[in-house]
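[Q] Does anyone have a clean structure-token version of this?
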Amino acid sequence: MNQEDTPKHKKTGNEDIGRRLDKIRMSMDLSKADFASLLGFKHVNSISHIINGTRNLTVQHLIILVSNLKGLNVPWLLTGEGDMLPSAEQRNLEATVERLSIEKEDLEKQVKRLDRERKILFDMAEALTKQYILGEPVDLKRLNSDDPEAGA
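[A] Here you go.
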């Protein structure tokens, strides 16, 4: 029995993923040692075993790869379908989604600010109405403070 047939070197069925990983490594112009280091492996043998299909790529290492290689088409890595890197249209769509997410956060902040201002104006109108109808004195500085007891 040769060394390739021993249980230590048994194929995992993920040889295709290994070949695609090696294609990524080569497209990044990295040695196996540098690629192993990028993925957080201490030994180059670890990445060699994944590339050869004798070890599986873990989810943890997949996450590290995706975070270091922005734009990697994960379905391509796992299935071979599509392109290694997304098309320009896909990258534009992702950039638009990111921009809209930032804009959404900004709008949410503005809504909170406007809600605070609405409450202040409502409290001021209520106090002025009491002053006008009931003749109660109004301390507008107290109404405009951030003190939760203000206006009470």
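[Q] Thanks! Anything notable?
[A] The first helix runs from residue 15 to 27.
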